[in-house]
Amino acid sequence: MANALGIVSPSVHCFRRRNRAPLGLHGSEKKTAFICLAAADGGVEGRVLDSASSRSYRPRAVGMGSKLVGCGSAVPKLLISNDDLAQIVETSDEWISVRTGIRNRRVLSGNETLGGLAVDAAKGALQMAHVEAEEVDLVIMCTSTPDDLFGCGAQVQRDLGCKNAWAFDITAACSGFVVGLISATRFIKGGGFQNILVVGGDVLSRYVDWTDRGTCILFGDAAGAVLVQACGNDEDGLLGFDLHSDGHGQRQLNAPAKDDDSNFISNNNGTSLFPPKKSSYSCIQMNGKEVFRFAVRCVPQSIEAALEEAGLTSSSIDWLLLHQANQRIIDAVATRLEIPSDKVISNLANYGNTSAASIPLALDEAVRTGKVQAGNTIATAGFGAGLTWGSVIMRWK
Ligand code: ACO
């Protein structure tokens, strides 16, 4: 993809849906899962997974379509207004709301966690879908800010009681939910999974520099979830998609690992061996202007590619639901796609940029307020750090 601004490399490749898998069944043999666990005496014991552990295999129909049947969301209690921010950095409610459309955001406090928000959001999606936790096959946790370095999908699975599911995390910043949604449809189409929870959640407040007025005004914390369910190909609600990444743009938006290797580990003789890298992450650094230009240029192209795959045009969609980063980006993309403002979903005034949560958070609000109705077609797109970006054309229910 060419980009006159030089942010996106000319060689960047895109990934779209191709090759529908044929209808069929996996083999019916049942595999026995065997794991090693640390025993109480410090040794290692082996045991066969019991019913409380994730199920590794079952006969499955493949080649199915996917539809969205439930959504939910959760936000932290603490609300931080633009006026609150004006007390800690040199800014104003007017500057922030005019330049971004944001007025308030929610920020994690007390004993709130990303996992807790994710569980609450997922419960809402399960309830709306009339699906029990035990019926879920897979939990995909899309986040760049897990409670644990190794991810928190499995803890979300545990806390939801999804005892027949397995779980993993996806890291793709503000594109995370779109990547998770597309991944879910692949597991249904290629692997015969029936019910998949896709949770988008981020708590970027953990990595915000609260003295940097260029970034601290933008971000908020939240989680949103959808339940993606297998259906017949004739009901397939995931109509087209388009995905991209380009690491050349990483310099425009990042929060790199920070190594403190000033202290050496010594051996028993007192000889220095090596400096352990006591690592943490830097705060978010962003070239806002370049990210803005990247989004306004690349997101419409991506949506057009996904629409083309779906055999649709922008005039035939019911809703445009973009990652909620900046109202001016949303407006500019809508204008380029010639989508009228009454078809544009936006709730970032209340929540700011909630990264991987923003799309399911806005979808949940739009569904629960009756804006989005069964059968509506939605063009959605995520974009952000990586750089990563991608679009999905989907039907609600
Ligand atoms: N309050 C008051 N003044 C400010 C503030 C503030 N909060 N922030 C910047 N300014 C000043 C600047 O210092 C500058 O002053 P100067 O002209 O005297 O130098 C002036 O306002 C203009 O600054 P810009 O950075 O050029 O402002 P811009 O109009 O570009 O808006 C913003 C900045 C809101 C960050 C915008 O660029 C933006 O939204 N970019 C996109 C961010 C985004 O979409 N990120 C998505 C991905 S997030 C992820 O993936 C994790």
UniProtKB/TrEMBL annotation:
Catalysis: reaction(s): malonyl-[ACP] + acetyl-CoA + H(+) = 3-oxobutanoyl-[ACP] + CO2 + CoA
GO biological process, one term: fatty acid biosynthetic process
Domain Beta-ketoacyl-[acyl-carrier-protein] synthase III C-terminal, residue spans: 307-396
Superkingdom as given in the UniProt entry: Eukaryota
Domain Beta-ketoacyl-[acyl-carrier-protein] synthase III N-terminal positions: 168-247
EC number: 2.3.1.180
InterPro entries tied to this protein: ACP_syn_III_C, ACP_syn_III_N, FabH, Thiolase-like
Protein family (similarity comment): Belongs to the thiolase-like superfamily. FabH family.
Protein name: beta-ketoacyl-[acyl-carrier-protein] synthase III
Source species: Musa troglodytarum (fe'i banana)
